[in-house]
Amino acid sequence: MKKFISSILTVIILSTMFIVGFPASAKATTLNGKAVSKGQIVTVTYRIKAPKLMEDIQAHVDYTGGLKLMSVSYSSEMKKGSFVENHNLTRQIRFNAVCIMKPMDFKKTTNLISMKFKITGNGSMKISLNLICLDATDGTNYGRTGANSQYNKLNISTVTKRLASSVKLNRNTLALKRNKTYKFKATVSPSTTDNKSVKWYVSNRKVLKISNGKVKAVRKGTSYVYCKTTDGSNKTAKCKVVVR
Hints:
InterPro entries: Big_2, Invasin/intimin_cell_adhesion. It is a single chain. Helix content is about 10%, strand content about 50%. The protein contains one helix and 20 strands. The strands form six sheets. The chain has a four-stranded antiparallel β-sheet, with no helix packed on it. It has a four-stranded antiparallel β-sheet with strand order 6-7-4-10, with no helix packed on it. A four-stranded mixed β-sheet has the order 13-20-19-16, with no helix packed on it. The chain is elongated, with a radius of gyration of 28 Å.
């Protein structure tokens, strides 16, 4: 009987451990289905290709909470005529252009609108473009709504770039003897960054030579080794090197 009761107690304790001790994993942080990290800077660009010249466009971009809009830029094609935009709305950017004298040319793939956001929240976040009106010079309707819409003839694509928040070197200071070499290691964060490549250079090329993170001490003196991200975030790290 004692063994039976002991076995039951063991099962109850183990069950409690699984219920209480192992909580469900946290929901992933994503932007339009792509993994992102809180604090990360992300650029989102909507590109358009249209078969005809356009004279009128009305559109808005909607985005969910957890995103802080930092900047926005537009195609120069929309600024040939009358252009109006408002990005001071709550989680929405509105823009429209009327270009009758100089129609908008999107026959080649063009960046329509480009936005920079900071990830401030967690969970699933979304950004979407709503092309309400897009009228060609011959009257053809390419907007999402309206009679005889030719919206499916447009080629609209999205380019999302997840930028680096920081870069660090494995050394802050280093002492080398002449003709000796050392290989630096750079760590780009966060892990969700798309482009983690860096560019290497030194402050004094008479003292150090560098290639792909590997330095060679040329002569006595002091020089800094720098690495810089190449994804547009312009994050840098440095190490002071003394050659003896």
